[in-house]
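Quick one: structure tokens for this chain, please?
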Amino acid sequence: MKLTRKQQKILLIAAVVLLGMLIVVGVVWMIRSGSRKQQTLESSTPVSSIAETERKEPETPDTTEYQAPSYPVVPLDVPPVVPEEADLRIEAESADFTGQLTVEDVYPGYSGEGYLTGFSKSEGDKVEAVFSVPSSQHYDVTVSVCADSPVTNAVALNGASIGEFQIEEPGSFVKVTFSGVYIPEGEATLSIQEIDGYFALDYFEISSYREMYEIDYQDEYPLSDPKASDGAKRLMAYLSENYGEKIISGQYAAGDADTELELIYRLTGKYPAIRFGDVEGYTSNSIANGGDIIAACERWAEQGGIVGLMWHWDAPSGVSSVYAAQTDFSLMDALPPFTVTNEIVEQETAPSADPAVPDETTAAEFSAETEAPTVVQRFVFSVDVALKTPEELDKLVQDGTIPEGCRALLTDIDSVAETLRPLAEKDIPVLWRPLHEASGDWFWWGAGGAEAYRWLWDVMYRRMTEYHELHNLIWIWNGQSETYLVDQYDIAGLDIYLDKDKPFGSRYEQFVSLNRMTGGEKMLALSECSTVPDRNLMFRDNTIWSFFGIWYGDYLIDEEGRYSEAYTKADDMIAAYNSEAVITLDDTKKVFAKAE
């Protein structure tokens, strides 16, 4: 059907009007969407958006566009501790037991009238020993157990596991002690949680424990570098002054932007005192993008913050990776020529449990019987490369005195030293943590064994402090095992990660073990952790870490770039950062901020 001119004119006018309305609606929608986008940016900007903005604008992030929350100071709430002598024992056959459990007397060496056996994970099997605890304090909890083959089971206090025990020596009763367990005054029930079963139980015991109460927080901790800069001395004095009194907050940043720190500020109204970063990506064989980490450190220091740096060291040659399983670089192959000697080490007591096993939530077994002398292998090197010039190192390679890998190690140390030099020139002190988690052997610098690691630490320490004269570094040893303990360091740190659903507590088990390991002569810190430690329990247990550093990524931020409660509930993070016992940027800037 053909339209008349009048009809065509009417349709044309209608089309123009409709087009105009669509344009108006579109403009209004864009304006309102932009407003909502800005509002979202101010309240909960995703990580990628903040990071892109800060990379374009290197100045200190502007926080004036949003109002940070403000919270009252949160006081400590420390449970009571009243040390008293106690020595309580309940024989297993005298405890309350049900199910298939029976009393026998076949195994030798039991106390009382026999022991309890029949643990086979049968339904209804249960044993409980109810104690009358004389005072609220820390105790040793001991069980005497025996088995025909290696098995693992657990001890529980009032229904909650305090730790697993393994029976390795078949046929005889052994004592397993969990030290430093806090038990309130009154009734307390010890029981067995079967994992494997198939063992015999002689008795439960609760006795006094003193080691926590004897931990000494010194007034001053000297630096290992005799030429330490004024800035390093000043920071070390500040750390010493607060050690045992408060814990210093710290947060890892994924790059050179302050994304994670801004997220904490928007949640808690406080910035962490320590900004931790990584110098990965500053060596020739690294494929990582380190960004401008030094500029980020300088900005933080100007605000009065404390700078912390670690080094995920990508292998100096071969496949670029920090992981031993992913690179073909071998530290053992890179060592200068050496001979091996055997050294007899007298041990009064057995080494305590590894203080930093990932997902470790049980009380460490601190007490042990006297052991026979241990034979330890030591390396004696034929050439000292720590202070050689590049030309001298090249000649040693040409002569066949040292391998190419050794030269590559020194080249990387030189590169990172030059990266750190601007901070030294401005005397910005750095909490410096290289060669971390060595005893786990997942990183190439630990996979070669303790002696190779100790050599590498010594070479790095002397090359950075003596050859490059970086005297602003406060060295954090993070080897996590007594076997990997080095000579020159200032602070001992542990990296402790727990499952999401497990309370972090004070980590007193690892604190006491590390304090033993270092002879009580060093400050101890949570150099990495999955969440904030429980400050109330730290003071109750007298195990007060110098500082903590929460890792980035899933431990703080969700997939949409907003605060994640997967590891730390928002209320807990707010309470921690506003606690009277936690030091934040508000505190450190009063001491370290540059004068205008």
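The CA atoms of residues 158 and 497 lie 25 Å apart.
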